[in-house]
Write a structure and sequence with these properties.
This protein is α+β, with helices and mostly antiparallel strands. About 40% of the residues lie in helices and about 20% in strands. The strands form seven sheets. Strands 17, 18, 19, 20, 21, 22, 23 and 24 form an eight-stranded antiparallel sheet that branches. It has a five-stranded mixed sheet with strand order 10-9-8-11-16. A four-stranded antiparallel sheet has the order 5-6-4-7, with helices on one face. A hairpin with a 5-residue loop joins β23 and β24. α7 crosses α15, α13 crosses α16 and α19 packs antiparallel against α21. The radius of gyration is 30 Å and the shape is globular. The chain starts with a strand and ends with a helix.
């Protein structure tokens, strides 16, 4: 079983496990390939030119498909390169050829260029990088402040301290690695690789993180912007014979842990070392690339496909997202009196019901065969896409072929979770389900992403058009059956009975599921749901609501403060407590009374400052900020400790004096021993307003009630 692949210039090492032992095989014959498309005379000229290029091992003419929409194969030039690292160099040289009559922009089209080295090796040599035995993990962690100060004494291994001084720590790490012989190193940050390796060298300690000496830096840290948000990619490192998971830079580790990551390794053939740092979009693209290899379709470099001509009316209709119903702001459910007098639990469960279309957008692509080569194809002139009138080809599409197994497997895994009584097995299955969920979430957006290898804007538009039609059709069926839609977001609907003789909801969802060929599932019954208004109170906020799930000790929260990553832990817990009070009393006054107790705690200074830590993401370098805000103050304090923070990285701080306009305004969590009560009191009021605004209590009314209550209590003592 192959579990790791190492590539260093002209040598490839393939690691597998033979029982207890890790075995390595060297492949010195591997030569990666890129492909070039052009007219026959240009390709012949290029082949002659490349014969003298020392980077090139051989060239050959082949007949290959160059796109999903290609009518048939075309002649291309395959170029085998001496070293994997030279693929990109050669591709740039070919693209920028400016020989008279032989070059110029657009003359040469390149394929199979920007595929990561280890992934490329597995695809081209048909090496399946999927371990068949359980991998061994070893975890090391070090706090940010200790990392900045190069203080190894805080290092932990699997949560336990390693040593009291640097030498003891390094020797302890070496011992742990020797005893466990891990296949995967799970690190709090990949910067531990150079830190531990360099410290071991300086102290004369024999420490080898990999199964062979040394380490390599694969990429430096960088900042990027995606969909208007600034992100940060940490530096990446590689050690021989082991995969590294950087917890600070691995979305998939946070969502799917090792079971979810290995599931995606099997689907993409992208080795674990690369899957660990890949974004979910990167992994989805890898799954598509593997499918393209199986279809014998070349992968374009820097793919770009112009949007097809369409009338202005079609542009207007196409430039829309999924359908969203404005929610009916308020408390939907039984009042306190109704709840206490009702003995019919089934009536309570029918109060508010959430129903969801299962994986709506991926299923739309599969059911309606939406793919770059099928939408607005050249072989049909039909009106298949609602609102837009696009035609859709009958031939099986590439994207549905990729997505359908993922949809089916996720449904099968969820069924296995329901059937198992083994909590460990259920947890492993849930990790796989979560990883696949994010693939399905990503697949829709990538159809409209300009850099998508196999995307097309018309597919993106068609998906939205079908989604709008499906939701509107579902609404008609539900209303005809005696139900009212109180809210709807793209693929979810919240409904309540409108008349006493309403049709059973399960019958209606079955009808809709059959008509749409997509399951409309009964997601949750609620005792009550609150839809929160916008800040101006004029309408319902589309994505802010909370409610009590019927029959379970569970709430569902969306969009409110406790779901926002910037909200301090204490504020989030108070909001949960206020919602629990609302469930108990179903009236605003007891909730406000509960808030008063928390306000007293904050004002008295009795709250642990660490529970008041605010987390936010840096959007630009420190010197680019024009205002001395809290973010700047925190960044200055990070600098004071030698802890550089780049755009896209998170920072954490506690507000200690919000009236100041200097670095003294905040403290970093490990510095803070107090806080600014007035600042956090306002955060409490904001959290309380989200809970009580559906009951028509805004922040001013909450404050007025608390003042009047306090005055009444003081008067009773006069």
């Amino acid at each position: 079983m192959v579990f790791a692949v190492d590539i260093e210039d002209d040598v490839v090492r393939v690691w597998s496990r033979n029982g207890e032992d890790a075995v390595v095989e060297r492949d010195e014959s591997y030569t990666p390939s890129l492909y070039v498309g052009a007219t026959d005379d240009k390709l012949a000229w290029l082949a002659d030119r490349l014969d003298s290029d020392l980077k090139v091992v051989r060239t050959a003419f082949e007949s290959r498909l160059t796109s999903l929409r290609a009518e048939g194969p075309e002649t291309v030039l395959r170029v085998d390169v001496e070293r994997p690292s030279e693929i990109d160099t050669l591709a740039r040289e070919i693209r920028t050829i400016h020989e008279p009559e032989q070059g110029g922009p657009g003359t040469y089209r390149l394929f199979n260029v920007d595929i990561s080295p280890k992934f490329r090796y597995c695809l081209e040599t048909e090496t399946r990088p999927v371990p068949s035995e359980e991998l061994r993990l070893l975890s090391f962690s070090l706090s940010d402040s200790a990392l900045a100060n190069r203080d190894l004494t805080e290092l932990t291994c699997n949560g336990e301290p390693v040593g009291e001084n640097a030498v003891a720590v390094l020797e302890g790490v070496a011992q742990q690695i020797e005893e466990h012989d891990p296949d995967v190193l799970v690190l709090s940050t990949a910067n531990l690789v150079p830190l531990l390796s360099d410290a071991a060298r300086d102290h004369g300690v024999d420490l080898q993180l990999g199964r062979l000496p040394g380490y390599r830096q694969l990429a430096s840290e960088s900042t990027f912007e995606s969909y208007g948000r600034v992100g940060h990619s940490a530096a990446r490192y590689d050690v021989p014979g082991r995969a590294i998971v950087d917890r600070s830079n691995s979305f998939l580790w946070g969502e799917g842990r090792l079971p979810g990551m290995l599931d995606l390794v099997e689907r993409s053939w992208k080795p674990l070392q690369e899957t660990a740092w890949g974004s979910i979009g990167n992994i989805f693209t890898a799954i598509q690339i593997r499918q393209a290899f199986e279809w014998d379709v070349l992968v374009p470099w820097r793919a770009w496909e112009a949007e097809s001509f369409k009338p202005i009316r079609t542009l207007h209709d196409a430039d829309r997202g999924g359908f969203t119903f404005e929610p009916e702001v308020g408390f939907h459910g039984n009042t306190a009196e109704q709840s206490s007098t009702s003995s019919d639990s089934s009536a309570t469960r029918q109060n508010v019901v959430e129903i969801d279309f299962a994986s709506l957008y991926p299923n739309i692509m599969c059911v309606h065969n939406l793919s770059p080569e099928t939408v607005r194809c050249d072989c049909h002139d039909t009106d298949d896409v609602p609102w837009l009138g696009y035609s859709v080809c009958d031939e099986p599409g590439f994207v549905p072929l990729v997505l359908q197994p993922i949809i089916d497997d996720r449904a099968e895994l969820k069924q296995r979770i329901r059937e198992t009584d083994d909590p460990d097995e259920a947890r492993r299955l849930e990790h796989r389900v979560d990883a696949l969920k994010w693939i399905l979430v990503t697949c829709f957006g990538y159809q409209g992403f300009s850099n998508s290898k196999f995307g097309r804007i018309e597919v993106h538009e068609s998906i939205n058009a079908f989604a709008r039609e499906i939701i509107l059709d579902a609404k008609e069926v539900l209303e005809a059956g005696g139900w009212t839609v109180v809210h709807g977001i793209v693929d979810s609907l919240w409904v309540t009975p409108r008349v006493d003789d309403h049709a059973p909801l399960d019958e209606l969802t079955d009808v809709i599921s059959r008509e749409q060929k997509i399951d409309l599932e009964h997601e949750d019954d609620f005792e009550w749901v609150c839809f929160v208004p916008t800040k101006d109170g004029q309408r319902g906020a589309l994505t802010k609501y909370f409610g009590k799930v019927a029959g379970r000790d569970e709430y569902k929260y969306r969009g409110i403060e406790l779901r926002q990553r910037s909200t301090p832990e204490y504020i989030a817990n108070v909001q949960r407590d206020l919602i629990d009070s609302l469930h108990e009393h179903r009236e605003p006054e007891p909730v406000a009374d509960r808030l008063a107790r928390h306000l007293n705690d904050v004002r008295s200074g009795s709250v642990d400052p660490n529970e008041l830590t605010i987390q936010t993401r840096v959007s630009k370098p420190l010197d680019a900020y024009q205002q001395q805000n809290r973010t700047v103050a925190a960044l200055q304090r990070y600098d004071d400790h030698g802890m550089k923070r780049s755009p896209g990285q998170d920072i954490h701080y506690v507000v200690v004096d919000d009236e100041k306009r200097s670095r003294e305004r905040v403290r970093l969590p490990f510095e803070a021993d107090d806080y600014d009560p007035a600042f956090y009191v306002e955060l409490l009021f904001r959290a309380a307003e989200s809970v009580l605004s559906p009951l028509e209590w805004d922040r001013e009314r909450i404050k007025r009630y608390l003042r009047d209550t306090q005055n009444a209590r003081l008067t009773s003592y006069s």
